[in-house]
Amino acid sequence: MSSCDIESISGNSPLTLKEQWGIVLAGVSDFFRPVEALSLQQNLALMATGAIWTRWCMIIKPRNIFLATVNFFLFCVGATQVSRVLIYRQSLKGTSATKEAKDAVKEEAKAVQGVLEQSEETSKQAVGAK
Known about the structure:
By secondary structure, this protein is mainly alpha-helical. The protein has helices spanning 6-9, 14-29, 40-59, 65-93, 97-129.
């Protein structure tokens, strides 16, 4: 049986919860930035992090509703910004939002593939050095 007091729920420190809300508020402050200055990769990461951790907070026992709330809003901020970037790119190219989203995913897949190839090469070099 685990304890369910305010310290265990908020991440062992009230400051930790404040810092997490700070990330959400920083994302909200980006609503006022021009869309050209927004990073699609950064906001995709915020969106994915928010979605993954919101789900995780609902799976663990005891459920961490405070942390789930923070991460849900982090997902919402990321999704809003990703939508803004994709719509902006669509308006520049004159393409559909769906095509722009697919193109963005392809760009990210290429970047991930490059990182994987580099890590495999490094691993092979490390094994060969032994």
